[in-house]
Amino acid sequence: MAAKSEGANLSDKAVSNSEYMVEARNVYKWFPIKGGLFGKTVANVKAVDGVSLTVRKGETMGLVGESGSGKTTIGREIMRLTTVTKGQIIFDGKDITNLKGRSLKQYRRKMQMVFQDPYASLDPRQSIRSALNEPMKIHHVVSSKQEANAVTERLIETVGLSLDHLSRFPHEFSGGQRQRIAIARALAVNPQFMLLDEPTSSLDVSVQAQILNLLKKLQKQYNLTYLFISHNLSVIRHMCDRVAVMYLGRIVEIGNMQTIYDNPKHPYTFALLSSVPNPDPLKRKAGIVIEGDVPSPIDIPSGCRFRTRCPYATSKCTEEFPPLVEIEPGHWIECHYDIDFKSRRNLEQKAAASSGIPQDLPTTPVA
Amino acid sequence: MMDEPKQIASTQPALEVKNLRLVFNTYAGVVKALDGIDLTVYKREVLGLVGESGCGKSVTALAIAGLLPENAKILSGEVLLNGQDLLKKSKKEIRLARLKDIALVFQDPMTYLNPVITIGSQITEIFTGNLAMYSEELIQSRIEEIQSRLAGDGFSVPSFGSQSLVSLEQERDRLVALKNSGKKLSRGEGKRLARLRAIHYLRLVRLPEPERIFKMYPFELSGGMRQRAMIAMALVRRPKVLLADEITTALDVTVQAQILKLLKELRDKIDASIILITHDLGIVAETCDRVAVMYAGNIVEVASVFEMFKNPLHPYTKGLFAAVPKPDVSTKELESIKGSVPNLIYPPTGCRFHPRCPMAFERCPVVKPPLIEVSPGHRVACLLYGG
Amino acid sequence: MTQRIPQEVETEESSGDREVERRPAGGVKAELKFALYLARKNPLVLVGSAIAIISIVVAVFSGFLVPSDIWKVSHLDIRLCWNNPIIDWHLKNIYVCPGSTVMPLGTDSFGRNLLQMIILALPLDLEISFAIVFSAVAIGIALGAIAAYAGGYIDEAILRVTDIFFAFPGLVLALVLLAVFGRTLNILVIAVLVVWWPIYVRLIRSQILSEKEKPYAEALRSVGAGRFRILFRHIIPNAIYPVLVQMTLDIGGVILVFSTLMFLGFSPDQRLPELGNLVSSGIDYVNTAPWLIIFPGLTILVIALGFNLLGDGIRDILDPRLRR
Asked: What is the reported pTM?
C-alpha cells in the first residue's frame, strides 16, 4: 500500500492527488496580540501551528482534540471562513488558500458546514423555507421560486421533518430538529464536502443518535465526504474511517480509526482514550490520567509541546522537536518514542476483570 | 466472572425526597416539571441522577437546596433531611440548612464564583460570616487536625506550615481550653481557623500550592482548577449532602477525568453523600454506587450501578443505553428512541414515556406506573413489571 | 443565578413545537401576543403606547380637525371674549380668554383657540421629531455599517468623529448654526440632528459588530452569502430592536429639546404653532392666564412621557430575549 506522506513537508509534492477532496498543507493560523504604543505584535496565539492533513473522497475523516487544540480553527480555515496565515488549502485539486469574493463563492457551493450550536446557527427571524431557499438563490442553482420550493420540500423530508415545518421559525424547534434544518440547508446546493463541527455536542444522547444515523444515511445517499470535528471520542469512533488527534495546534497522531483505538501510539492519544468514561461499570478506569491543564497557545512549550503533561517525557523531549514517524502503514505519530500502550492496556484490563475491583496501575513506560 | 456489586455505603438515609410534585408558571402555560419524585440518598454513597434535558434533574437539585425561581410552586411532597422537612421550613431556616448540611456545585465555575473576590475569601466567607454557628466546629476540627498531625498521620501536612510540633501542641492546648471554657472565638482567631480549614480543603482537592491559590482570583485559575476550588468551597463546611450538577460538562475530557478521579478519592475521605447529576452514562458508570434514571419529571428506574447496566428494565433506560456510542465497540447504527422529549405543559397521560415506548400497551396511557421494587434495590416505574 | 427556569425545563413536543419561556423571535403574530402578555404585566406600557398612538393619530388627522392656516393671525385682529363675568379683568388682555364651551382651553396670546393651536402643533412637532430621529438612524446605519465592516483606521476615524460630536454642547451648536445660517425651521432641525446622530452610530455599530460574529452570520457566510446580503437581510432586522427602543425614547426627547429651543426664542415666527413656542408666548401671562403655559406644557410632558413609556415597554419586551 502506497502510504501517502502526511508529514510536515508536503511542499515537495508538486501535483495534488485527485483522490483527495480536501488537503491542508502545512497550515498555520496565528492570531497576533498587539501591544505597546504603536500596536506592535508582541506575541501570537498559535491556534494552528503546522497542520497537514488530507480528506479522501467519500470518507469520513475525524478530527479530535480538546480546547486549545485548534481543531475548530483548522476547520474554519479549510472552509475559508478565515484567512490562512501560512500554508495551503487545496480543494478538489484547486488551491483556494487566497481566493476571495466571487471566485471563492463558486467553491462555497461545493463545501458546506454544519455548526455546533443549533440554537444560534439559524437566523432567528427567518422562516425555515426562506432559510432553505436562500442558498439556492445565492448560487443561482434554480431558475424559479417554484423550483426552489420543490427542492426545499424534498430536502425537509429527507432530513426527517415535515412540510408544515417550513413556515415556522427556528425558535419553535428543538435542538435536534434545528440541526436537521441546518443539515438540510447545507445540502440545498448539492455540495461534495461537509464540515461537521461538533454537530451533536449540544444535543441529548438520544437525539444525538438520531442525527448521527441521519448523517450516515445522507453520506451514502449523496456520496458526501465528511470532516467530523469533535471532542467526543465515542462519537468519533462511531462515525469516522480515519482520525487525526490534535494537541495545541498540531496533529500528534493520525491513522485508521480501528488502528488508533486498538494501538494508540502517542501518549496524548492514550490519555484521551483512557479519559473517556466508559458506560460500563465493569470496565472501570485503567489507563493514565494526565495531570495539569493545556498550556496556553501563546506560550507553546519547546521541543514536544505535550511534554509538560506527558508522563514519559525525557530531556530529549524538551530539547528537540519530535519527528513525524510512520509507525505502521498509514499510521503516523509525532513523538520521539515508540511506546506500547496496547499491551499495557491489555494487562490492565485482564487485571481488572479477574479481581473485579478497578485498579490503578503504576504508570511506567514499557518502551 | 464479576463479583457481586459492592455494598451500598450505608443503609441509613441521609436525604429523602418523597412524592415531590412541582410546577412552573410561565407565559406559555403551567409546566408540570416534577410529577411525584421519590428519591433516597444513603449516607456516604454516590447516587447518580441521570436524564436528558427537560427531565427535571436540575430542578430536583434546586428544590432540595431551596433555590427554586419565583415562578416555581411545590404542589406536594417532602424533602427530609435529618428527619426534618426542608420544604416546610421558613426561608431563614432553609438558608441555615444550606449553610450547614447541603452543598451545591454547579456546571460553570466562572459564573458561580465571584470574580472580584479571592478564592480564599469566598471559601472562608461562610465561616467569617457565621462565626457564632461555626465556632465550636472550627475549634473542634482544628484540634482534631492537630491531634492527627501529632500522632504522625500521613495525610496531614505542611499547612501546619512551618509550625513546629511544640507550637502545635501549645495551640491545641489553648484551643482545648477555649472549648472547655465555652467562650466564643474572637474574630481574629476565627479568621485564622477558617483560613486553615480552607487551605486544608484546597489541598484535599489536590490543588497545587493551596496557600497561593487561597490568595488568587478566579480568573487566574484554569477551568479545572476553578472547579476544584468550587468543590473545596462546597466541602469545607462538611455538608451531609453534596449536589453536583453537571460539574464536568464544561470541561475537557482529560480534565474531567481528573475531577472524576478526585471525586472517587474524596468519597473515602469525606463523610458526605454525593448526588451526581449528569447526562453522561460513562460518568455514572465510573463513579456512582447507585443510579436513578429520570424522564419527564419522573424517576423511572433506580438500581445499583452494576445492576442497572447489566440488567436495565425500563424501556427508556434500555433505549438510552443503546443510543450511547461506546468508546470501545464499533457499531453500524445507533439505536435511537423515536420521537422527542414531551412538552411538559401538556404531558402525556398515564406513563409519560408511553408515546415513545416500543413496548407500550393499552394501560400505559391510562395509569401512571408507580415505582415498585422488582428485585432487592432495583425499582422500576413501568407497567410491564407490575402496578 | 438569574435563570427564570432551569435550562433543562425548556422542552418541546415532537411536532408542533413550542419553547416554554423563550420569547418568540419570529412571526409577527407571536410577537404581538407576547407583547400583550407583557403589557398586561406592566400597565404603564399600555398607557404609554396609548398616548403615543393617540398623539400620532391626532397629528395625522389634524388637517381635518382644524383649518391649517388658522394660526396666521395678524395682530391687528382683535377678538373680544365672549360673555364672561370676569370680562372686566380681561379687557386688559383682550385677546386672552379662558376656557368655555366654544374654546375649551381658552385663547392664547394672539386670541387664537388654544386647543386648535395645540392640535396644529402636534403634527409639526411630531414630524420634526420623526424626521430628526429617522435621519439620525439613517446616518447611524450608514456610518455604523461602514465602521463595523471596515474596521481598522476607518473605524477609528468614524468613532473619533462621533466622539467629537458627542462632546458638543447642543445648545451652543444650535446657537452658532442659527447665527450663521439664519433662523429658519430647517436650520433648527439640522442643528438638533447634528447633535443627535452620534448615539445611533455608536449603537448601530456595536449591534452590527456583535451580530456579525454570531454563528448564524458565519453560517450564512459559509453558505456563500455576500456581505451586503448578510447585512441588510439578516443583521439589520436582528439588530434593530435596541435601536427601536432608542428611537422611541428619542422621539420624546427630541420634542423636549426642540420645544425648549423654540421656547428660548429661536423660533422663526412668533405665531408658529409649536408647543414650545406656545409656551414662550404665554410666559408673559403666567399670573393672569396660566393656562397659556399649562396646556402646551402639559402636552409636551404627556407626549414625551408617552413615547418614553413606549420605549421602556419595548425594552422590556426585548429583555426576556436577552435574558435567555
From this structure: 0.80
Radius of gyration (Cα) for chain A, nearest Å?
22
The single residue listed with the C-alpha cell 452658532 is C176
Residues of chain A with pLDDT > 90, as a percent, come to 46
Would an 8 Å CB–CB cutoff place C32 in contact with chain B?
no
User: How far is the C-alpha of B340 from the C-alpha of B320, rounded, in Å?
Assistant: 12
Residue among C3, C5, C12 minimizing CB distance to B26: C5
Tell me the shortest Cα–Cα distance from B46 to chain C, in angstroms: 22
Contact B53 C14 (CB under 8 A): no
Chain A residues whose beta carbon lies within 8 Å of the beta carbon of residue C226: 105, 138
Residue-wise pLDDT for A291-302, tens only, equals: 777 888 888 998
Q: Distance (Å) from the C-alpha of residue C157 to the closest C-alpha of chain A?
A: 16
Q: Is residue A252 very low, low, confident or very high in pLDDT (cuts 50, 70, 90)?
A: very high
From first to last of the 324 residues of chain C, give the pLDDT tens digit: 332 333 332 223 222 233 333 444 455 666 677 667 766 777 777 888 888 888 888 888 887 777 777 777 655 444 555 544 444 444 444 455 666 656 667 777 776 777 878 888 888 888 889 999 999 999 999 999 999 888 888 899 999 999 988 888 877 887 788 788 877 888 888 888 888 889 899 999 999 998 888 888 989 988 888 888 888 888 888 888 788 888 988 888 888 888 888 888 788 777 788 888 888 888 877 777 777 888 888 888 999 889 988 888 777 766 655 443
CA distance C307 to C313: 10
Angstrom distance (rounded) from CA B302 to CA B377: 8
C-beta atoms of A231 and B323 within 8 A: no
Would you give the DSSP letter of residue C113? B
Closest by Cβ to B253, choosing from A206, A207, A272? A272
H helices present in chain B, as ranges: 57-65, 91-100, 109-112, 119-128, 131-150, 165-181, 187-204, 210-214, 223-235, 253-269, 281-287, 305-310, 315-323
B-chain residues within 8 Å CB-CB of A283? 285, 328
Give residue A275's Cα distance to chain centre. Answer: 19
Residues of C in contact with B339 (CB under 8 A): 14
Closest CA in chain A for residue B262: A289
Average pLDDT over residues B163-191: 80
Question: Does the beta carbon of C85 lie under 8 angstroms from any beta carbon of chain A?
Answer: no
- Using CA atoms, how far apart are residues C298 and C279, in angstroms rounded to an integer? 10
Residue listed under C-alpha cell 470518507: A59
Distances (CA, A) of C8 to A204, B25, B54, C3: 11, 15, 4, 11
Residue in chain C closest to A173 (alpha carbons) equals C17
Q: Cα torsion at C48, C53, C59, C63 (round to 10°)?
A: -150
Q: What is the largest CA-CA distance in chain B?
A: 77
Per CB-CB distance under 8 Å, the chain A contacts of B252 are 66-67, 231, 294
Dihedral class, residue B29 (left if φ above 0, else alpha if ψ from -120 to 50, else beta): left
Which residues of A are less than 8 Å from C240 in CB distance?
Answer: none
CB neighbours (10 Å) of residue A251? 29
Note whether B336 contacts C: Cβ–Cβ < 8 A: no
Question: Is the CB of A138 less than 8 angstroms away from the CB of C224?
Answer: yes
CB contact under 8 A, A281 and B325: no
Which residue of B259, B286, B289 to mutate against A (max A Cβ within 10 Å)?
B286
For the four alpha carbons of B183, B188, B190 and B196, in that order, the dihedral sign comes to negative
Does residue C165 sit at the B interface (CB-CB below 8 Å)?
no
Output the CA torsion C67→C71→C73→C78 (10° steps): 90
User: How many helices (DSSP H) and strands (DSSP E) are in chain B?
Assistant: 13, 12
Cα A151 from Cα A83, distance rounded (Å): 33
